[in-house]
Amino acid sequence: MMESSNDEKHQQQEDPAAARNKPIRLPRAETLAKIKSIAGHGGLLATLMIYCLIGGVVFRILELPAETDRIIELKEILLLRRKALLASFNASGFADLADWEDAVLRPYEAALQNAARSNFMVEYIPRVSESGDDKPYQLVNERWSILQAVFFASTIITTIGYGNLYPTTFFGRLFCVLFALIGIPLTLTVIADYGQLFADAVSAISRKLKARLPQDLLRRCVPANDTFNKSLGALFAVGLLFVYLACGAAIFMLWETQWSFFEGFYFCFVTMTTIGFGDIVPTNPKYMLFCTGYILVGLALTSTIIELVRRQYASSWRRLQALSGPLADALKKIGEQAGGDISVLQTDLRKLLNMSMNPKRQKNGLMGGHAKNSEVDEAIEAILRDLASGRSRNIALRNQHQNALVQIIIYESSV
């Protein structure tokens, strides 16, 4: 017996050292689940980015030749009108100014307007005419570069559609239809996926903050009303959206030197809400990839915040509908019993007030607030006493008016 007890003690003494030497084993199932989750979210975003890249390349292949021919044609027309305008200054064939405007000036202005609508740089014409270069490919490449084409593809699948760049060929428009039919559902899937991630992250941060803060401080600073907490959460989400838009506006203000902060904020808001007027569009092709990523992340954040606000609106509307029925019945009985017994009115009002105060009673009861429930009961009784006293005063005043009316009738009849 003594030897067995000594062996047990010896094993107990060796157990701590053996435990230290054993390798630490992480739960393999949880690790694999996290890896799969991260790979799934990242794979969706990577698929969308690759899809945008492929779409941009295809749009460039389809639209670049037609855009080159169109720009060359605009250049030739503009050069011809410009030469005619310069030649008219030395000619004496126009005796009337109106004839000169109709024959020379107005066609030149129309050519300038067409070139401006096509984003053709007017200052490029004198340089071309002086150097004799008939290949404005550099200008076209800036318009349909890879980055510009990828950014254009992202505006299609996100349904923003600024309108500053669009396909003009038959095959380009056909590919645009097919590209949108596949890309829009894919984009909505990515936005919903990352929106859920943002919502879970906000909930996790909120839980951690509540767990670390002292409970006494939470009871004093945060009301126990669940409606107020939801409204506060929606307000915080809207504030987070405005911070994201402000950060984007500051970045775009640095890149687009002609933009003010408000113009950058306006562009970010119009983009994140998929309004996409197209009156303000970034023109620096170097930052188009960043702009595409910023838009995709912002759309996920915006959709999540809009959903939170929508739920708050729906909850408020349901509470209003729930109270409208009992309130309408109580007001109807008030009108029907304008001269009747006050006890029936008090009973109806008591039911209505108990119904409206019932969620607060339950919350106070769960929190151990019996004193608060008694305060609510006392408040209801005070309201009913005030109504009863007001009712009594109204009846007394009505009796006085009736007595005065009887006296007047008697006096008139005696006269």
UniProtKB/TrEMBL annotation:
<keyword id="KW-1133">Transmembrane helix</keyword>
<keyword id="KW-0407">Ion channel</keyword>
<keyword id="KW-0812">Transmembrane</keyword>
<feature type="compositionally biased region" description="Basic and acidic residues">
    <location>
        <begin position="1"/>
        <end position="13"/>
    </location>
</feature>
<comment type="similarity">
    <text>Belongs to the two pore domain potassium channel (TC 1.A.1.8) family.</text>
</comment>
<dbReference type="InterPro" id="IPR003280">
    <property type="entry name" value="2pore_dom_K_chnl"/>
</dbReference>
<dbReference type="Pfam" id="PF07885">
    <property type="entry name" value="Ion_trans_2"/>
</dbReference>
<feature type="transmembrane region" description="Helical">
    <location>
        <begin position="232"/>
        <end position="254"/>
    </location>
</feature>
<feature type="domain" description="Potassium channel">
    <location>
        <begin position="240"/>
        <end position="310"/>
    </location>
</feature>
<dbReference type="GO" id="GO:0016020">
    <property type="term" value="C:membrane"/>
</dbReference>
<dbReference type="InterPro" id="IPR013099">
    <property type="entry name" value="K_chnl_dom"/>
</dbReference>
<feature type="transmembrane region" description="Helical">
    <location>
        <begin position="287"/>
        <end position="309"/>
    </location>
</feature>
<feature type="transmembrane region" description="Helical">
    <location>
        <begin position="261"/>
        <end position="281"/>
    </location>
</feature>
<keyword id="KW-0406">Ion transport</keyword>
<feature type="region of interest" description="Disordered">
    <location>
        <begin position="1"/>
        <end position="23"/>
    </location>
</feature>
<keyword id="KW-0472">Membrane</keyword>
<feature type="transmembrane region" description="Helical">
    <location>
        <begin position="144"/>
        <end position="163"/>
    </location>
</feature>
<feature type="domain" description="Potassium channel">
    <location>
        <begin position="141"/>
        <end position="198"/>
    </location>
</feature>
<dbReference type="GO" id="GO:0034220">
    <property type="term" value="P:monoatomic ion transmembrane transport"/>
</dbReference>
<feature type="transmembrane region" description="Helical">
    <location>
        <begin position="38"/>
        <end position="62"/>
    </location>
</feature>
<keyword id="KW-0813">Transport</keyword>
<feature type="transmembrane region" description="Helical">
    <location>
        <begin position="170"/>
        <end position="192"/>
    </location>
</feature>
<protein>
    <recommendedName>
        <fullName>Potassium channel domain-containing protein</fullName>
    </recommendedName>
</protein>
